User: Which sequence fits this backbone?
C-alpha cells in the first residue's frame, strides 16, 4: 500500500507538470494490479499490449481472480489502444500502461521513443528488472537499446515495488519453516 500510494503520488506530480507517465507492466498479474491501483485515482489512462488479452481471459474465467467486478470497473475506466490512431491519442493522456515490463520489446518502446527526451514525462517501472534487460540498463546506466541503437533516456524514471510474490530469502524461510520432504517450483 505504501508503494501504491507513492506510485499514485508520482503520477500526480508528472501529470501536474504536463508530462506523461509511462508504466511498463508485465501482462499477467502486474497489469491488473496497476489498473486496480489506478482505479482509485482520476487519471486519463490508456492500456496497450498483451495485458488487454490477459484481462479478457481473466474476465472469461472469474474463478481465478479475487474480484471480476473490480477488474471490469478498472477495464471500463481505461482507453484500450487498438490501432495507431489510438496510440497517438494515448500520448495525449496522463498514463499509458503497456507491455513489456522490462522494456525489451512490445508497444512500450514506441511510447518510450516519443517521451524519452521530455523532462516532464516519466517511466515508472513496476517490477524487478533482470540483468541484461533494457529495464536494468535504464536503472543502472540511464540508457536503453532502442531498435539496435543505445539511446539516453532523459525523461525521469523511477522504480516502484509492486512485487506480487516473496523474494529469495522469504521463500527459503517459508520452505524451512514447513520442513517439506519435497519442493516443487513453478513460475507463472
Assistant:
Amino acid at each position: 500500500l505504501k508503494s501504491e500510494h507513492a506510485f499514485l503520488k508520482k503520477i500526480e506530480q508528472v501529470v501536474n507538470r504536463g508530462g506523461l507517465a509511462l508504466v511498463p507492466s508485465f501482462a499477467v498479474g502486474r497489469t491488473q494490479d496497476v489498473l486496480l491501483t489506478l482505479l482509485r485515482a482520476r487519471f486519463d489512462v490508456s492500456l496497450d499490449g498483451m495485458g488487454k488479452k490477459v484481462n479478457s481471459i481473466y474476465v472469461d474465467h472469474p474463478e481465478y481472480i479475487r474480484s471480476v467486478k473490480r477488474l471490469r470497473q478498472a477495464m471500463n475506466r481505461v482507453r484500450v489502444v487498438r490501432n495507431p490512431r489510438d496510440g497517438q491519442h494515448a500520448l495525449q493522456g496522463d498514463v499509458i500502461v503497456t507491455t513489456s515490463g522490462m522494456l525489451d520489446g512490445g508497444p512500450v518502446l514506441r511510447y518510450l521513443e516519443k517521451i524519452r527526451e521530455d523532462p516532464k514525462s516519466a517511466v515508472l517501472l513496476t517490477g524487478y528488472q533482470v540483468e541484461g534487460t533494457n529495464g536494468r540498463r535504464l536503472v543502472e546506466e540511464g540508457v536503453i537499446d532502442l531498435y539496435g541503437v543505445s539511446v539516453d533516456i532523459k525523461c525521469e524514471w523511477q522504480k516502484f515495488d509492486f512485487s506480487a510474490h516473496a523474494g529469495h530469502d522469504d521463500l527459503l524461510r517459508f520452505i524451512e519453516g514447513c520442513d517439506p520432504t519435497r519442493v516443487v517450483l513453478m513460475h507463472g
Q: What stands out?
A: The helical segments are 2-16, 30-38, 51-60, 68-77, 84-90, 108-115, 134-141, 168-178. The longest helix spans residues 2-16.
